[in-house]
């Protein structure tokens, strides 16, 4: 199972919106509405930000939203804040009943 | 509250095995799948596999089949991940993460604190 494709890095200024893409295949992202997004700070465990493509866990800011079209899922962060600077990973359930992660995207807030 | 508490850091020699534990509290271990994920230094997240604590069923990533074993002890609400024939490439932080309720989905709502395994001669 190949890793999902994410941009290595994205950047934006405070207040702007950014979108991180996550591209897979019809056997994972495109085949199921089970895409999740995680935020990770250095030395910390990942934190769930979005699950089942569009759902936000309790306590996650409304500035985070998810979507999917075909084999590509996206995470959008609006009203960018300095605290959003972190690594972001997508994951998807697969047709083999396994899980595959993206390679990760480093978000820089300028 | 739900917590996953992992065992402490390990230093192993090449060729050895390591067994990492993940103690669950605040919920019933058998009600949710448990996943294991690792992260090498400076690298991304890598999914290793899941275990269904209810019946011990497992599904491992193709890369790890034959050298990872996931088990559980329901009497002490603990899941285990054992990796054998260690090489320096296995130096990483290993995480347990709660899966779905009676589902192999990676819920990912709760993660252990991570266990650093260092493989060095």
Oligomeric state, counting identical vs distinct chains: heterodimer
Tell me the series of helices and strands of chain B, N- to C-terminal: EEEEEEEEEE
Radius of gyration of chain B: 13 Å
Estimate the global geometry of chain B from the Cα principal axes: globular
Residue share in β-strands of chain A: 35-45%
The description of the largest β-sheet of chain B is:
6 strands, mixed
The two chains with the largest interface, and their residue counts, are: A-B, 25 and 23 residues
The best one-word shape of chain A is globular
Q: For the CA atoms, what is the radius of gyration of chain A?
A: 13 Å
Strands ordered across the widest β-sheet of chain B: 2-10-9-4-5-6
Question: How does the helix and strand content of chain B classify structurally?
Answer: mainly beta
Folded structure, characterized:
In chain A, 0% of the residues lie in helices and 43% in strands. Chain A is an all-beta fold and 110 residues long. In chain A, the strands form 2 sheets. In chain A, strands 1, 3, 4, 7, 8 and 9 form a 6-stranded mixed beta sheet that branches. In chain A, strands 2-6-5 form a 3-stranded antiparallel beta sheet, with no helix packed on it. In chain A, a hairpin with a 2-residue loop joins strand 5 (64-69) and strand 6 (72-77). Chain A is globular. The model of chain A has no long low-confidence stretch (mean pLDDT 96). Chain B is mainly beta and 121 residues long. Helices cover 0% and strands 51% of the residues of chain B. Chain B contains no helices and 10 strands. Chain B has a 6-stranded mixed beta sheet, with no helix packed on it. In chain B, strands 1-3-8-7 form a 4-stranded antiparallel beta sheet, with no helix packed on it. In chain B, strand 4 and strand 5 form a beta hairpin. The termini of chain B are far apart. The model of chain B has no long low-confidence stretch (mean pLDDT 96). Classes of the chains: A mainly beta (110), B mainly beta (121). The interface between A and B is medium-sized, with 25 and 23 residues.
């Amino acid at each position: 199972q190949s890793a999902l494709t994410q941009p290595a890095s994205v950047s934006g200024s405070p207040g702007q919106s950014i979108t991180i893409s996550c591209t897979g295949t019809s056997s994972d992202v495109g085949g199921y509405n089970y895409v999740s997004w995680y935020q990770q700070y250095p030395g910390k465990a990942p934190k769930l930000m979005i699950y089942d493509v569009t759902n936000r866990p309790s306590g996650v800011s409304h500035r985070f939203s998810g979507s999917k079209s075909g084999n590509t899922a996206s995470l959008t962060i609006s009203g960018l804040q300095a605290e959003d600077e972190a690594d972001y990973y997508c994951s998807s359930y697969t047709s083999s009943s396994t899980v595959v992660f993206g390679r990760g995207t480093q978000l820089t807030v300028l | 509250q739900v917590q996953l508490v992992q065992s402490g850091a390990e230093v192993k020699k090449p060729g050895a095995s390591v067994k990492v534990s993940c103690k669950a509290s605040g919920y019933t271990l058998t009600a949710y799948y448990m996943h294991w994920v690792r992260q090498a230094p400076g690298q991304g997240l890598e999914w290793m596999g899941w275990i269904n604590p209810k019946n011990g069923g497992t599904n491992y990533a193709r890369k790890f089949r034959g050298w990872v074993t996931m088990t559980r002890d329901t009497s002490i609400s603990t899941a285990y991940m054992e990796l054998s024939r260690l090489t320096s490439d296995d130096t990483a932080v290993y995480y347990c993460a709660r899966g779905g309720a009676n589902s192999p989905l990676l819920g990912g709502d709760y993660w252990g604190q991570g266990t650093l395994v260092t493989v060095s001669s």
